[in-house]
Amino acid sequence: MKQSVSHYVMPDEKEEATAELVHRLGLDGIENLIYGDEPSSNLFTSLTVGAHLRFWPRWMDFYLGNTKRYKKQFPDEKALTAYYGASDTDGWLEEIRKNIRAALAEKPEYLVWHVADCTLEEAWTRQFYYTSKDVLRETAAIYNAVSEEVPETVEVLFENIFWPGLCRLLPSEIDYFFSLLKGSNVGLVLDTGHFMNTNPDLETEADGAEYICAMAEKLGSMKKLFRGMHLSCSLSGKYQKSCTAVPPENMDGETVMMHITSIDQHRPFTTEAARKIVECIEPAYLTHELFGDYGEISEEKLKIQLAAIGAYGSGGKSVFLCG
Q1: Would you say 202 and 236 are in contact if contact means Cβ atoms under 8 Å apart?
Q2: Is 155 helix (H, G, I), strand (E, B) or coil?
Q3: Which residues lie below 8 Å from residue 112, measured CB to CB, with a gap of 6+?
Q4: Nearest to 156 by CA among 7, 84, 56, 51
Q5: pTM, whole model, 2 decimals?
Q6: Are 31 and 50 a contacting pair, CB within 8 Å?
């Protein structure tokens, strides 16, 4: 099992300095967050284990040509281009291809692809226009259209979010999704915090571990599709239950980000619940998805979570898994 930390590389960042911190904690490298459409001028090829592709939270209306629905947020070509990098779907698919190429320039062993769709209003109302099956079908169509960009030696791992797509990780939906995908170099990355956010009744880390492991048990042999894991804790039920279902009048970037981060907390696990989850899933790639206040690598949070899985103090390597 390789361990990494989620990280966005800054233009003036030195790979040697970041490597010193990462390796001192016993990690193998970083999961490199790649949001651009051109290879970085500051490649971290020696430290990159995996690369996280760009994600557009709202795309179904645009991709399916449902202009009546997307015109409110994107009234003209300028607005579309500002968000999607293009004003038509062919152009957007090319943006996805370019993002994949930029990620591959970092020499990752795997890529992460978010599977979800949500409008700004739906982030509050939670009354979704598209079903998970809708999102899975169209995600597979998009991936199949661009999959030739990815070498067979690089895995593509699809990630669950708490919006329609892979949110519930139901056996029937996973089976349906993978029946549509081209190639054999595909799998899943389980985001523990995202999955915990789908159950606002969770109160403790132990509750979260039980919820996650129960889901994995229901998958049977499909559990092996979990090649990766994003490990963080999110117990946001109190906020979710208190949150009004009426969208605020002002949905600017700051308001939206505050709402999303109140749901998706990205806190470190502090108890043996983390160890239980990792032992249950047995990922090949374990990414600690923890961030400092300014997006930097948080040594403090990493030490807390590494201790929770029984790794900190043993050179960061797992003391209970042999792979």
Answers
A1: no
A2: strand
A3: 31, 50, 51, 52, 53, 157, 159, 189, 228
A4: 51
A5: 0.95
A6: yes
**H/E element, 125:** helix 122-125
Name the amino acid, one letter, at 10. Answer: M
Find out whether 89 and 62 touch, Cβ atoms under 8 Å. yes
Helix (H, G, I), strand (E, B) or coil at 115: strand
Which two three-digit tokens encode residue 39?
């290879």
Kindly write down the DSSP assignment for every residue of 11-37, as one continuous string. TT--HHHHHHHHHHTT--EEEEE---S
What are the C-alpha distances in Å from 182 to residues 24, 107, 135, 189?
A: 39, 22, 17, 18
Decide the pairing of beta strands 2-7 and 29-33: parallel
pLDDT along the chain (323 residues), means of 10: 97 97 97 97 98 98 97 95 97 98 98 97 96 98 98 98 98 98 97 98 98 98 98 97 91 94 96 97 98 93 96 48 32
What element of type H or E holds 63? helix 60-64
69 phi and psi, to 5 degrees?
-80, -40
Radius of gyration of the chain (CA): 19
Tell the residue number behind the tokens 């081209």, with chain if given.
Answer: 182
Q: Are strands 2-7 and 48-52 parallel, antiparallel or unpaired?
A: unpaired
